[in-house]
Design goal:
- It is a single chain.
- The protein is built from seven helices and 16 strands.
- The protein has 295 residues and is of the alpha+beta class.
- It is 26% helix and 27% strand.
- The N and C termini lie far apart (39 Å).
- It has two domains: 113 residues, D-amino Acid Aminotransferase, Chain A, domain 1 (2-Layer Sandwich); 157 residues, D-amino Acid Aminotransferase, Chain A, domain 2 (Alpha-Beta Barrel).
- The longest helix has 14 residues.
- Strand 14 and strand 15 form a beta hairpin.
- The model has no long low-confidence stretch (mean pLDDT 96).
- Helix 2 crosses helix 3.
- The chain is globular.
- The structure holds 4'-deoxy-4'-aminopyridoxal-5'-phosphate.
């Protein structure tokens, strides 16, 4: 399938309060966000005309901006509405939604107090992050070379573009070796998350998941914890050492893009997708499509 570049498509992008033609949604090369990673973003999905957890995503966008010391010049309600309007304008009812906010070009030093803050929202059709075959079998992952930094080193709870530098390098290395993704440890050596999703393990019928104290506490992660607890499944949030993976039977990753995706391998450890992973995968799919009463 030919790749359609993301800057050469038909459609409309919401930019600073108005719709512009997709190909005209441009920034200048001297944009602070490009040079110094002063940009924050979101990833959301619309299912059957409704964006799942829209306001939670928008609030996280505002909080990410606040952590990076800038203020988005719109209200949460305005951005919520703009996300919905962008889907409608592009005629999509099932879509991936990508809002992004960044510092403009008025200043290009490290200090950027007087830059204009821009916001754009693009939406596109993106059925599944992983292929259906990969999903059923479980994806294969290796260990990432880079570690998630400590909260004293980076603003780890912001969904900020700069934090993805080590994710892209790690994911590329994984793909070169034939893996789908890479699992990252944190600065202490505990299991953290993948390059774009949170992780869960199954041990004796309970779910174990790393404490999100140096990475994103994903909205999907929080949803899956609620779903599992509503089913009477015990969920343990704790620090997990990599060698503990030898005793875990199932593993899956969760995120807005990944949804719930079983994992068959992380480095030297193997897992078999089974009842718990598959039932949560199914329930999450029903919940986001409003076929299941919220947990
Ligand atoms: N960790 C990282 C690094 C991510 O990029 C994402 C996707 N936003 C997640 C976790 C999962 O977050 P969410 O469930 O809110 O999409």
């Amino acid at each position: 399938m030919a790749l359609v570049p993301f800057d050469d498509r038909d459609g409309w992008i919401w930019m600073d309060g108005a719709f512009v033609q997709w190909r005209d949604a441009k920034v200048h090369v001297l944009t602070h966000g490009l040079h110094y990673a002063s940009a924050v973003f979101e990833g959301e999905r619309m299912y059957g005309g409704e964006i799942f957890e829209l306001t939670a995503h928008t609030e996280r966008l505002f909080e990410s901006a606040r952590i990076l010391d800038f203020e988005i010049p719109f209200t949460v309600a305005q951005i919520d509405q703009a996300c919905k309007d962008t889907c409608a304008k592009n005629g999509l009812t099932d879509a991936y939604v990508r809002p992004i906010a960044w510092r403009g070009s008025e200043m290009i030093g490290v200090s950027a107090q007087n830059t204009k803050i821009h916001v754009a929202i693009a939406v596109w059709d993106w059925p599944s992050y992983f292929s259906p075959e990969e999903r059923a079998k479980g994806i294969r992952m290796c260990w990432a070379k880079y570690k998630r930094p400590s909260p004293e080193t980076e603003p780890v709870h912001a969904k900020a573009t700069g934090l993805y530098m080590i994710c892209t390098i790690s994911k590329h290395a994984a793909e070169k070796d034939g893996f789908t993704d890479a699992m990252m440890l944190d600065y202490r050596g505990y299991v953290a998350e993948s390059t774009g999703s949170n992780v869960f393990f199954v041990h004796d019928g309970a779910l174990h998941t790393p404490t999100p104290d140096c990475f994103l506490n994903g909205i999907t992660r929080q949803t899956v914890i609620k779903l599992a607890r509503a089913k009477g499944i015990e969920v343990v949030e704790r620090h997990i050492k990599p060698e503990e993976l030898a005793g875990f039977t199932e593993c899956f990753v969760v995120g807005t893009a990944a949804e719930v995706t079983p994992v068959s391998q992380i480095g030297e450890y193997n897992f078999t997708p089974a009842a718990l992973s598959l039932s949560l995968m199914d329930e999450y799919a029903k919940l986001v499509r409003r076929e299941l009463v919220a947990a």
